[in-house]
TrEMBL record:
Subcellular location: Cytoplasm
Annotated keywords: ATP-binding, Cytoplasm, Kinase, Nucleotide-binding, Transferase
EC number: 2.7.4.25
Residue stretches making up the Cytidylate kinase domain: 3-211
Gene3D superfamilies in the record: P-loop containing nucleotide triphosphate hydrolases (3.40.50.300)
PANTHER family in the cross-refs: CYTIDYLATE KINASE, CYTIDYLATE KINASE/PANTOATE-BETA-ALANINE LIGASE
Organism: Symmachiella dynata
UniProt cross-references to InterPro entries, sorted A to Z: Cytidylate_kin (IPR003136), Cytidylate_kinase_dom (IPR011994), P-loop_NTPase (IPR027417)
Protein name, UniProt field: Cytidylate kinase
HAMAP family, per the entry: Cytidyl_kinase_type1 (MF_00238)
Length: 216
């Protein structure tokens, strides 16, 4: 069974998808980590992001693996490094590269294979797994997403003004929604869940109720 969770930055996709996968005993696939991994590898190799062929070559060459919550590139654990602000900023170039998208979409389908998977990203229900059994589109107001992200930064010792977090988030949202291929949008058959007023546990509970057979 495939369950897709798409939505904008900071809506809680990975938190909810990871918990849901744990509750159901499914695998969890974080596809944003793959776009980040390619961006990280490009930065390591000093690749010019305007050279779309060079960026695609990196995506074609590196081996991305998941080991539990860890993300490996060519065997190196890059779980922390792919979450830096530099990689977040650079991932717009990998996400906007058509060839990179083709390569990663193919890998995402291969990773899912015949397994039971909860997968999250921007295009999982629309492009990658259009026949998924359950599709969710998780949203939250821009302000609540930015506040959550700001708290996350603060917990890592980075104090960033809310206005800046909100502005960066709006830029990402706009780019994600405007992409010609793999744009962020709800699949026609996705259930939309607004998480602004509910915590992650309640979101997971709601999703489990929709899926049916709550394993409580
Ligand atoms: N329902 C919720 N209520 C409050 N905080 C939440 C909720 N869901 C997630 N969070 C917190 O919000 C932050 C962003 O969540 P998360 O990383 O899961 O979002 P995301 O949609 O995967 O973002 P991105 O696409 O940028 O990776 C985290 O600090 C997380 O703990
Ligand atoms: N299916 C996806 C998932 C992510 N992206 C882009 O990758 C970047 C990082 O994603 P996070 O969810 O880890 O923040 C982000 O800029 C997304 O635009 C994508 O294009 N498709």
């Amino acid at each position: 069974m495939i369950i897709t969770i798409d939505g904008p930055a900071g809506a809680g996709k990975s938190t909810v998808a990871r918990q849901l996968a744990n509750r159901l005993g499914f695998a969890f696939l974080d596809t944003g980590a793959m776009y980040r991994a390619v961006a990280w590898a490009c930065l390591q190799r000093d690749v010019d992001f305007s050279d779309v062929d060079a960026v695609a070559d990196v995506a074609r060459t590196i081996v991305i693996q998941f080991d539990g919550d860890e993300v490996l590139v060519d065997g190196q654990n890059v779980s922390g490094e792919i979450r830096t602000n530099d990689v977040t900023a650079a991932s717009q170039y990998t996400a906007g590269n058509l060839e990179v998208r083709e390569i990663l979409v193919e890998q995402q389908r291969r990773i899912a294979g015949d397994s039971d998977v909860v997968t999250e990203g921007r295009d999982q229900g629309t492009v990658v797994f259009p026949a998924a059994e359950f599709k969710f589109f998780i949203t939250a107001s821009p302000e609540s997403r930015a506040r959550r992200r700001q708290e996350e930064f603060a917990a890592r010792g980075q104090n960033i003004p809310l206005e800046q977090v909100l502005a960066d988030q709006t830029d990402r949202d706009n780019r994600d929604a405007a992409r010609k291929v793999g744009a962020m949008k709800p699949a026609a058959d996705a259930v939309e869940v607004d998480t602004s007023q509910i915590d992650a546990d309640a979101v997971v509970q709601r999703l489990l109720e929709i899926i049916g057979g709550t394993p409580d």
